[in-house]
Specification:
The protein is an alpha/beta fold and 579 residues long. It has 3 domains: 3-22 and 156-258, Phosphohistidine domain (Glucose Oxidase, domain 1, 3-Layer(bba) Sandwich), CATH 3.50.30.10; 36-151, Orthogonal Bundle (Enzyme I, Chain A, domain 2); 261-578, Alpha-Beta Barrel (TIM Barrel). It is 46% helix and 12% strand. It contains 23 helices and 16 strands. The strands form 2 sheets. Strands 1-8-7-3-4-5-6-2 form an 8-stranded mixed beta sheet. An 8-stranded parallel barrel has the order 9-10-11-12-13-14-15-16, surrounded by 4 helices. The longest helix has 24 residues, at 39-62. The two termini are 40 Å apart. The relative contact order is 0.09.
Amino acid sequence: MTISLSGLGVTRGYAVGTARVFRRDNIEVPRYEIRAEEVHTEIARFHDALMEAKVELHSVRAQFPENVPREIASFLDTHMLMLEDSLLRDGPVKLIKSHLHNAEWALKLQRDFLVASFDEIGDSYLRTRKDDVEHVVNRVLRALLKQPPESTSISPDHLRGRIIVADDISPTEALYLHQHHVAGFVTEHGGPTSHTAILARNLGIPALVGVSMARQIVLDDDSLIIDAPSGVLLVDADDLMIVHFHGRSRALASDRAALAKLRGATATTADKLRVRLQANVEFPEDIAAAKKIGASGVGLYRTEFLFMERSDPPDEDEQYEAYARAVRAFKNAPVIIRTIDVGADKDPYNSVQTTRANNPALGLRGIRYSLREPALFKTQLRAILRASAHGPARIMFPMLSSLQELAQVTRFVEEVKAELSARRVKFNANTPLGCVIETPAAALVVERLARCVGFLSIGTNDLIQYTLAVDRTDNHVSHLYDPTHPAVLALIRSIIRAGAWANIPVAMCGEMAGDIRYTRLLLGLGLREFSVHPNVMLEVKRMIKSTNVKKLRGDIRRILACHTMQDANDVLETMNNGH
């Protein structure tokens, strides 16, 4: 009998194969007390393990083939940097000295502290960076316990064509498995921004993450089918299902070939309305992907990668170099750089000593954090403004919810401009300022905000979460997270209208913009600028080109008049199938 398991599909693909289940034992961390005279020996043992882990990572890095995706290399580079970070190196040493813990237990306690800090991050992308901590600490623990590295624990025998079922998959394991031609990944843990998700997308491997109890249900050699678009794993699939999904795989390959022909095409609707398709950039490597796919600029350049997993913040020059590279890469196309979007629930470089937030999503995050840390904020503003000398950079502020905050931000910008002028540093004095509308408060005063900025961007991820009071990562309520809720659609429409009245551009940079189920809906609501991940840009472009916006007017009136989300989704299905 076929069993269906639910998860999150992080790629578009399908996979058919037999299961290979990784049942790795958890690392048993011993706990014992050492004598005072053994402290120096224990610290030396810890430092030796750090060095051994570093040598292993360098060895793995050196074996990467030239064509390996840069995202995988960047994960390994991050892990090597973490081994040098004071939070990881000094914390266990202090515990060894103060509590006479053995090195393994001291490292475990420090890991638990760091992971707990990451768990409280409001931003889902940053929250999943705890994976890095887990992988690095486990590597050091194995060195302390004289256990072999994780990559040597996987036998290459019979991997070709297999679907791997695991608790999680590390960057080195992902590359190893890809080189041995596995058919797909299924993991019990992870979300859309987890390691496995990012790696699977970049390697082009069909994958499901967050499949609860997968290793308890699936046995080695079970016949499996990954239906990533539907978020479904089929266990013990019959012959008819296998034939059906082989056909889907062939159709998908043909579809991808057709999509590739759209790279140089303009994003114009069937009734000749021009739409701007920009890219969301999370890593520097995304810039090359965005240019290759034909993005008309960067609608969201996330700056958090510069700040995370380090003991000190990046200085002005380091930030300037990163931002200037992006601006120069796109020449005359706009690059919208969002200021740092983290919070005191997880201080990115351990500079602010605060108590842990009870509710991080409602705490000191986004622009609130920057205004609390003026030195950090002004350093970032100087770096962005310096980069504006190389092309049309724009500055965007996250989580801004009031005119008072906007006034504070504007004062900081003017102070920084005066400082740069005094230093005779080149910058564009007319660099546009904008904000992300991602709180109901900002959406309700958007007309007044629109009169004071040069552009707006709709951050649907948080806007939907805060409007509906739903955490989409919470399995108990995630089914209530629906972009077609009447309140959400009313806010989106009001934001787009406010931009039109103020004669400023309005884009959408949240995940809703990259989901083709909502492309026609957003076009009908008046959205003309989308900022999406490069991986989905061509699909969105195809949907745009097949849409006659004038014919959507009746459907838009009906969907806005719906009382329930089910009614709205019924209209949405008609809209997507009928035009």
